[in-house]
Amino acid sequence: MDKNIDKPIQAEMPFAIVQGEQLTELPKDLYIPPVALQVFLEAFEGPLDLLLYLIKKQNLDVLDIPIAEITEQYVDYINLMKDLELSLAGEYLLMAAMLAEIKSKMLLPIFEEIEDEDDPRAELVRRLLEYERYRVVSEEIDHLNRVERDIYLSAAETGNYQQPDILPDIELSDLVIAFKEVLKKAEMFSTLHFMKEPLSVKERMSEILEKINGSDFVKFEDLFEFSEQKIGLVVTFLAVLELMKELLIEVVQAQEFGIIHVKMLVEKETHERN
Amino acid sequence: MSEIKNIVEALLLSSGEPLSADRIHKIINSKKSCTKADILETIDELNIEYNEKEIEVTRVASGFRIQAKSSINDFLNIIYAEKTPRYSRALMETLSIIAYKQPVTRGDIESIRGVSVSSSIMRTLTDRNWIKIVGYKDVPGKPAMFSTTNEFLDYFGLEKLTELPDLPDIKEPENLNLDLEPETLNEVTAVSSDQLN
Amino acid sequence: MSEIKNIVEALLLSSGEPLSADRIHKIINSKKSCTKADILETIDELNIEYNEKEIEVTRVASGFRIQAKSSINDFLNIIYAEKTPRYSRALMETLSIIAYKQPVTRGDIESIRGVSVSSSIMRTLTDRNWIKIVGYKDVPGKPAMFSTTNEFLDYFGLEKLTELPDLPDIKEPENLNLDLEPETLNEVTAVSSDQLN
After folding, report:
1. What is the CATH number of the domain that holds C68?
2. C117 and C63 share one domain
3. Element housing B68 (H / E)
4. A131-167 pLDDT tens trace
5. In chain A, residues 91-110 whose CB comes closer than 8 Å to chain C
6. If 0-12 CB within 10 Å is exposed, 13-18 middle and 19+ buried, where does residue B57 land?
7. Are residues B69 and B94 in the same domain?
8. Which of residues 123-182 of C touch A (CB under 8 A)?
């Protein structure tokens, strides 16, 4: 069944052609016990890290990378990672494609002296050097004295002291900013549509629910505050419609032209009969 | 002995937990020969030395620890009063959703925020009397519907929910960030000058 | 003055965070008249008193704090042996990029490291209060910009960002090739022995 070797390699891994066949043994330069191999490969922090390792391991000049050689080794390593079923981040494959592209550019005949910036490797070299700076400095920072490892803070208990219970204060503007954040995030979900609804309807919905809550039925007309202006009545009506739509209340009329009653569709748990 | 006393003091201050005489003895004896009686003696000496200080060695169930004397409680009050606790972003966002979209279920809040709502946030908001359950939605599971309370309005000095500030039209994302920008820049400047000076 | 010194000592020990001279002054002055110079003087006196002790007052980004002298780290290491948190290379690299290039977006970090930034790393850094959002970049998507905090500097016992190691300027190939080989191998050994035991 295994005809992989004869089959043309799938388009997803064009660089595998360089290798010609699947990697069945460890790269010759790796002298690491197999148990540690997985750990070793997992230790790479991405394609740049792996490339830097390959370059340094052979004392190659990062400013003049033998791209064909490095590409081949890089592909060996990521094939090995695949064989070990390490989760191979897309970035590794992207880098393989980038290397292949650089390699093909380098194969083009050179008619004149290449300027530095025309070197197809220039961008790769810049990224490698940039990453290397931070990689090196992060190791230095890791070695700095730090609390919990090299610095132990001195503290006295405050057992004699009853800490006052202070509740955080918020400003109205904090609330608005928070909601703006919510909206901004929600914008990313295209399925969510926010319409600017009149708040008063929302508020009225809550009021109505409260009014109904606890009693079995409330007369429809009791929901209205007739001292309110027409707009207030409309808002209440809209709130009732909205609550009906949301299946929160039910509006019933026993007979034609009879009294309309409103009841909660779901009662408070404490009232639940079953 | 004074050398051991200083080590005991620093250990008690920096251990992060009470230490028994046995434990202190074991720790110090691993490098410097001493007896458990020595340790107990140094603790007495420390307390004599602390007589005029504002700290003291006390004994609790799991061992000895150093604590501040109650004479500095007045000062501690000032420190803790300054330390205004802050609500998390998650809490503020949850509250704002309830305020602007009420009545809402936890599920509504979760689908808007894209992450689950922690029970502790809902409890904090309920304990603060800012939100309450106004009913249960007639869908499977009968989820509670939350609204803000009058106390919530009172807190901000508002009479009605309609007095909540209007939001910019969210269809135009530029509106959202316009007013944030200058603030942001100030903050950046503040931080860098702070850390670099 | 010795009275104020003892209060300053107790406050530094029980505040739970570093205190600036300004803050100490404000706290004490509310009950006992003193000047900021007095406070600074008492801190010097404390350190003179601590000369023979195993603790010291140090100055970090957010103020003064008292810590154990490193001379007794051998003893404290016994207590803390199991508790020291370890941070991954990915986290340290991310933190370093934020520290040196702040303010930066996740995109900036990703383009330097060549891999996507894990959300759990950003959360760990935020939860530890080492980084914070200082604004939003005015480009499509309005990505958040991150900077390091004073707590980050405190953790490494630093006062200012400029005290961080210099960012190496790697242009010469020799610089690049010097040290990686042995270090990498050490690291592998360290990691594997750790994980396999």
Report:
1. 1.10.10.10
2. no
3. strand B63-68
4. 999 999 999 999 999 998 899 999 988 876 777 677 8
5. 91, 95
6. buried
7. no
8. 142, 154-158, 164-171, 173, 176-177, 180-181
Chain C residues within an 8 Å CB radius of B72:
7, 10-11, 14
Contact between residue A194 and residue B169 where contact means Cβ atoms under 8 Å apart:
no
Closest residue in B to C80 (Cα–Cα): B15
* Farthest-apart Cα atoms in chain A, separation: 98
Contacts of C136 (CB under 8 A, 6+ apart): B177, B180, B181, B184, C142, C143, C144, C145
Q: Which pLDDT does position B112 carry in this prediction?
A: 85
Rounded Cα distance, B121 and A254, in Å: 44
CB proximity list for B5: less than 8 A, separation 6 or greater: B42, B45, B46
Judging contacts by C-beta atoms under 8 Å, the chain A residues touching residue C13 are 154-156
Is residue C143 in some structural domain? yes
The answer to whether residue B54 sits within a structural domain is: yes
Q: What is the ipTM of this complex?
A: 0.70
Model confidence pLDDT, tens digit, residues B24-64: 999 999 888 999 999 999 999 999 999 999 999 999 888 99
pTM of the model: 0.65
Interchain contact C10–A (C-beta under 8 A): yes
Residue A205 half-sphere exposure, CB side, CA atoms within 13 Å? 31
Domain that holds residue C60: 2-74
Distance from CA of A103 to the nearest CA of B (A): 43
